[in-house]
Design a protein that fits this description.
By secondary structure, the protein is of the alpha+beta class. 24% of the residues lie in helices and 26% in strands. The protein is globular, with a radius of gyration of 21 Å.
Length: 346
């Protein structure tokens, strides 16, 4: 199965704080398919598919639009620019990578001292961000300053590709979740459910779960499901007892993560729904990291939520990998959960 829309979503530029191209793209996909939609003050895109009853319960579906990336911190005398991270990015994965800079998406490469210019003892050290620069072909600070400014976003320049059962690309965290919401909306079609369904594509998750609480405050949902992309860990270099999830084992269900133990009723409902529909699943075995569910638990009087994720190798890097079978299963499980509405309180 080809995921053309996923390809388009992942290749869009959209680090935290600069999600507009992603929101613009999604808005085009949902026009005419929802009862209403709007963007709020922080940039969240929220859409409503109304249920039959005027007092219908509200189910919130949530995915974040932002990806990790970089930002310009200074312009150097030689025309290169200094950078810092936006979200959790290990500098060891950056050396020699192609990037796009600023609103004009200027092409550049992340440079570092060549191996034959380094001392042996420095080869095993993690480079500091202060030692990395992006080169875009400018020869002076004056020349670069005409095209680039401090605070400009820097995006990974990675094209989507499918290899066998795997998909490779950037920003699966969390454009995969954004795609899931679009597929659920597509499946609902003209269907009229008993409950309202709110689709929430939110901003700035990677820098502190900033958009989800704002969206939830407007919706005031009875329950929520967060669709995420999470670390796999089934790499040869990592001991199996440290794997969070494994590619090819199905959707990852989260029972707890940093800052939150997930709502037990919703967790059990998701698990039972997967089992009754013969959808293989796995647990996210490590508690490191967090999702917008942690923010929802601290919003209003506390919003009960569940988290379903697509496992991904090399997450938060210029190139990640997912198993399309896992991803298809996440989409199928999402459709069933939304249509049945059993995650909502009685």
């Amino acid at each position: 199965m080809k995921f053309e829309l996923l390809k388009e979503l992942t290749e869009l530029p959209g680090i935290s704080g600069f999600e507009e191209p992603v929101a613009d793209f999604i808005e085009k996909q949902i026009k005419g398919k929802v009862d209403k939609y709007w963007r709020d003050n922080v940039g969240n895109l929220i859409a409503l598919k109304k249920g039959k009853a005027s007092s219908a319960k509200k189910l919130m579906l949530l995915a974040h639009m932002d990806e990790v990336g970089l930002m310009v911190t200074k312009i150097n005398k030689d025309g290169s620019v200094g950078i810092t991270r936006v979200g959790g990015v290990d500098p060891r994965v950056l050396i020699g990578k192609k990037v796009s800079v600023g609103k004009d998406l200027l092409k550049g490469v992340i440079g570092f001292k060549a191996v034959h210019l380094q001392k042996d003892e420095s080869l095993l050290k993690t480079p500091a961000y202060s030692d990395l620069s992006v080169y875009m072909g400018f020869n002076s600070k004056e020349e670069a300053s005409k095209k680039v400014k401090v605070g400009d976003p820097v995006y990974f320049n990675t094209l989507y590709e499918e290899v066998g059962q795997y998909a490779l690309g950037k920003a699966f965290d969390d454009r995969s979740g954004c795609f899931v919401l679009l597929e659920v909306l597509k499946a609902l079609g003209d269907m009229s459910l008993e409950h309202d369904v709110y689709f929430s594509w939110v901003v700035q998750e990677e820098v502190g779960l900033r958009g989800s609480g704002v969206a939830a405050s407007q919706i005031q949902p009875d329950a929520a499901i967060v669709f995420e992309n999470t670390t796999a860990g089934d790499n040869p270099e990592i001991p199996e007892n440290r794997w969070a999830t494994k590619l090819g084992q199905g959707p990852a269900l989260t029972f707890a993560h940093g800052g939150l133990v997930l709502n037990k009723r919703i967790f059990e409902t998701i698990k039972a729904t997967a089992e009754s529909n013969a959808i293989s699943y796995q647990y996210k075995a490590r508690l490191a990291g967090g999702t917008d569910a942690a923010r929802l638990a601290r919003t209003l009087s506390g919003i009960p939520s569940g988290v379903i994720s697509t496992p991904s190798r090399y997450i938060h890097s210029p190139v990640s990998m997912i198993d399309t079978r896992d991803f298809s299963a996440v989409i199928e499980l999402a459709k069933i959960l939304v249509i049945e509405g059993k995650v909502l309180p009685e």
